């Protein structure tokens, strides 16, 4: 009996003493669905200076409508004027992850990923994660847009306007529209799971979050897993178009390019005046023009694009080296030649 009483007293004393002990802080842990900007902020990184300013009338919903439909509801009611008569953002850009490894710009890996995930293979970089980047219209885009690139290269708002006016051949956006588009783009920011970090990397980040590791090193680690800007290198067609790039083409890979890229814009004249279907006559026409210097030559239009013309402002952007390799061009040629026979 005494033993039982002693045990009861001991349990009560333990409970009382425990109640006076300081609460242990719960450990911070990164989840794979966490937004990268939130994790970087917790680590003490300087936030990217292009957060959306939700001024009167601005909203992510309006931004999505402008980007995907080209038209939205105005703050006071009624519809905005069509942003462009020719394109919407998804004409040239995906809005989901399109690269299996965000550290590199590999067109063939992107094509394989597009096939696996049912995506189009496009000239423009995906808008997914664009708000996590710090530079825009990189590389050789100043050769195309000249001084217009200067204000846009390190300013996402200017980049949005450049895309709206020059790339989409449309009207300039109003301030509340720009902020709406930017608010929508922030819904597309990168998540930790997009980076394919190893478990050891998560342990490094978690240790830093809990003041048991180097926070600066953790920030650099995270940023090393994705590009801060999309590279762009303009290249020319082969000097001898009859010979091509002197690479053996793979028609099966060319078929993917034709279906996921060429037909994205040209099938049923979706964004173009030129229809590309699966008829033999179409492939004979393309084959006939491969070696020529016309707007129907795949070398000509893929490497130079086509300029807007009076009455036909819907044009074709060119493919940079990072979007279409020389090998892929030969793959496309081999598929066209095969289908033309």
Notes on the structure:
This protein is mostly helical and 341 residues long. It is 43% helix and 0% strand. It has helices at 2-19, 36-42, 60-69, 107-117, 141-145, 149-152, 156-167, 175-186, 199-209, 215-223, 251-266, 280-289, 298-304, 326-340. Helix 9 (199-209) runs antiparallel to helix 10. The chain starts with a helix and ends with a helix.
Features:
mainly alpha, single chain, 341 residues, globular, Cytochrome Bc1 Complex, Chain D, domain 2, 2 domains
Provide the residue-averaged pLDDT: 91
Decide which structural class fits the backbone: mainly alpha
> Major sheet, described briefly?
none
Spans where pLDDT lies below 50 across 5 or more residues: 17-24
Strand element count: 0
- The tally of domains stands at 2
Calculate Rg over CA atoms: 27 Å
Q: Tell me the number of helical segments per DSSP (H or I, 4 or more residues long).
A: 14
State the share of residues found in helices, binned by percent: 40-55%
Report the principal-axis shape: globular
Order of helices and strands: HHHHHHHHHHHHHH
The N- to C-terminal Cα distance equals 101 Å
Share of residues in strands: under 5%
């Amino acid at each position: 009996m005494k033993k039982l009483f002693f045990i009861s007293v001991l349990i009560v004393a333990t409970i009382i003493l425990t109640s006076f002990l300081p609460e242990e802080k719960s450990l911070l842990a990164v989840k794979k669905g966490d937004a990268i900007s939130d994790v970087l902020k917790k680590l003490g990184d300087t936030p990217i200076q292009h957060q959306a300013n939700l001024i009167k009338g601005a909203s992510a919903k309006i931004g999505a409508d402008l980007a995907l439909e080209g038209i939205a509801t105005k703050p006071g009611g009624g519809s905005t004027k069509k942003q462009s008569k020719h394109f919407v953002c998804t004409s040239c850009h995906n809005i989901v992850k399109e690269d299996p490894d965000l550290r590199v710009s590999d067109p063939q890996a992107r094509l394989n990923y597009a096939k696996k995930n049912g995506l189009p293979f496009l000239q423009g970089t995906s808008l997914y994660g664009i708000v996590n980047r710090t530079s825009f219209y990189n590389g050789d885009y100043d050769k195309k847009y000249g001084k217009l690139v200067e204000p846009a290269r390190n300013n996402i708002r200017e980049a949005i306007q450049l895309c709206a006016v020059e790339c989409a051949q449309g009207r300039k956006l109003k301030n509340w529209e720009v902020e709406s588009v930017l608010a929508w783009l922030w819904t597309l920011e990168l998540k930790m799971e997009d980076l394919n970090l190893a478990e050891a990397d998560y342990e490094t980040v978690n240790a830093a979050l809990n003041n048991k590791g180097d926070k600066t090193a953790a920030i650099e680690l995270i940023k090393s897993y994705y590009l801060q800007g999309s590279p762009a290198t303009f290249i020319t067609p082969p000097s001898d178009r009859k010979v091509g790039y002197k690479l053996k083409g793979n028609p099966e890979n060319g078929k993917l390019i034709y279906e996921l890229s060429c037909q994205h814009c040209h099938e049923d004249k979706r964004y173009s005046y030129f229809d590309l279907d699966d008829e033999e006559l179409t492939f004979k026409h393309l084959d006939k023009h491969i070696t020529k210097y016309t707007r129907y030559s795949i070398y000509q239009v893929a490497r130079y694009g086509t300029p807007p013309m009076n009455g036909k402002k819907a044009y074709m952007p060119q493919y940079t080296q990072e979007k279409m390799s020389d090998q892929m061009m030969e793959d496309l040629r081999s598929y066209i030649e095969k289908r033309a026979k």
